[in-house]
Design a protein that fits this description.
It is a single chain. This protein is α/β, with parallel strands linked by helices. The C terminus is likely disordered. Helices cover about 25% and strands about 25% of the residues. Strands 6-5-7-8-4-9-10-11-12 form a nine-stranded mixed β-sheet. Strands 15-16-14-13-17-20-21 form a seven-stranded mixed β-sheet. It has three domains: about 40 residues; about 200 residues, Rossmann fold (3-Layer(aba) Sandwich), CATH 3.40.50; about 170 residues, Ribosomal Protein S5, domain 2 (2-Layer Sandwich). The longest helix is centred in the middle third of the chain and has 18 residues.
């Protein structure tokens, strides 16, 4: 006989409480705790026996450590992010905003594997089989021998997978729709998501199949459901992009079998996702030449150098608190750069609204973009265009000094390959040589401000006060 047991579980972090509360003490979320009912077998205490553990043979650090085998999908950008291809027996979680292209990307990967003679199964918990076929037809993949299943019960899904030879790839769209009979809570709750993931994980480890789970995301971009699921899986990928841009970025947040700083760049077209072999050229294809407030940043994403345009705008305001709007960069980092410009360089932006944008929908996280952002801000304030053939990179410290950043040679090589002839870099890169590229090494942010102020058109707004000179 089973008796019902009620508990209150946070839907964000999975914390369990004996009674309902408005705020979760573990993650700080409000109104995230809901009641769940689980079945617990009622076993008399007299019948409960403890099993003796078995002795496990201990191993040493020496021994064979062969690299995990890889199964390439045929999509070079996807394989780059996961570390060279799928690892047999691994479980991958991929999240992204609705309509960003997660299902499109994975059905393309499944189709490419199936066309090479490998068994690939697509489990849809949100769409009917006819809808999946329609998407495959639009992508030109209707002839691919991908096996389809529209089911949400995990036990039925696993029974079907075990009925024949183990598949190479199983795509589950999405994990929030899966439910197991061992739990009485509704699909999408913490208990169901965790239990369904555990069952799929056990199947992957015992059969060697690779399972890819598609996950929903919350309004702030985090993968919905308990964070314990991200700890259970082998890799967590994020599919990012702005709705108004055709570019899509696949980024690794966790990867037990590969790097976590690689990105893959795709372009959404009418025929599906198209790989972008040279992202720098694509991000700079429509940049504004000769316009104030634009600077080209030479960045690094994983092992790939990437050039992208930084756009800044400083507009006078009469409000007591100026507006600070950022797209594609850390707002706290922008506040720090503004403070350094005012305290160390005399650039007063307290009377201006500041807008910063990373062109193309890319999101930059490395501090090497500080110098490019500062140069774009001063250029926007003074109305002085930056040289169109120059790139910028360097970290700005609170003292106004420009600090060194890693992989300077790779950044300069990429800039020279795209036709740039000048690079403004930290002082430590003075001896870095690049064919056909003039390297300008600077030690402080004040030198960049002084150079732009000297070249500002007259009459101009004063860098220090923002007022027009006579």
């Amino acid at each position: 006989m089973a008796k019902a047991r009620h508990s209150y579980v946070c839907q964000n972090c999975g914390a369990v409480y004996p009674r309902w509360t408005g705020k979760c003490d573990a993650c700080g979320g409000w109104n995230t705790i809901s009641e769940e009912q689980t079945a617990q077998a009622a076993v008399p205490s007299a019948q409960r026996t403890s099993r003796k553990g078995r002795v496990i043979k201990l191993e040493t650090l020496q021994g064979g450590g062969a690299e995990a085998p890889r199964i390439g999908t045929g999509i070079a950008e996807f394989d780059r992010v996961v570390g060279g291809g799928f690892v047999p027996g691994s479980v991958v979680l991929i999240g992204g905003d609705p309509g960003i292209g997660k299902s499109t990307l994975l059905i393309e990967a499944a189709a490419k594997l199936a066309l090479r003679g490998k068994r690939a199964i697509y489990v849809s918990g949100e769409e009917a089989i006819a809808q999946v076929r329609m998407r495959a037809g639009r992508l030109g993949l209707a002839d691919a021998p991908v096996e389809l299943m529209a089911e949400t019960n995990v036990e039925d899904v696993l029974a079907t997978l075990k009925a024949d030879q183990p598949p190479v790839l199983v795509v589950v769209d999405s994990i929030q729709t899966m439910w197991t009979e061992t739990q009485e809570s509704a699909p999408g709750t913490v208990t169901q998501v965790r239990s369904a993931t555990q069952l799929l994980l056990r199947f992957a480890k015992t059969t060697g199949a690779c399972i890819v789970l598609i996950g929903h995301v919350t309004k702030d971009g985090q993968i919905a459901g308990p964070r314990v699921v991200e700890h259970m899986v082998d890799a967590v990928l994020s599919f990012e992009g702005e709705g108004g841009h055709a570019f899509r970025i696949l980024r690794a947040l966790k990867n037990r079998f590969g790097p976590t700083d690689e990105i893959g760049v795709f372009e959404m077209t009418g025929g599906g996702l198209k790989e972008v072999a040279n992202p720098s050229e694509l991000f700079l294809s429509e940049r504004d030449l000769g316009s104030p407030g634009t600077a080209v940043f030479a960045g690094i994403e994983g092992s790939r150098p990437l050039l992208v345009e930084i756009q800044a705008l400083a507009a006078p305001t009469t409000l007591g608190t100026p507006r600070r709007a950022v797209v594609g960069w850390d707002p706290n980092r922008l506040s720090m750069i503004l403070a350094v410009l005012e305290a160390r360089c005399g650039v007063r932006l307290s009377g201006h609204d500041v807008y910063l944008n990373v062109a193309g929908g890319l999101r930059i996280v490395e501090p090497a973009a500080d110098l490019a952002v500062a140069a774009a801000l001063v250029s926007a304030l003074t109305g002085t265009p930056l040289p169109a053939d120059a790139v910028y990179f360097g970290e700005v410290s609170l003292s106004g000094a420009i600090r060194a950043v890693p992989q300077a040679a790779a950044r300069l090589k990429e800039a020279g390959k795209l036709g740039f002839t000048r690079a403004v870099v930290p002082d430590s890169g003075r001896g870095t040589a690049s064919e056909g590229l003039q390297v300008v090494a600077i030690g402080s942010l004040a030198s960049v401000v002084a150079d732009l102020a000297a070249r500002a058109p007259r009459p101009r707004r004063s860098v220090a006060g923002g007022a027009e000179d006579g």
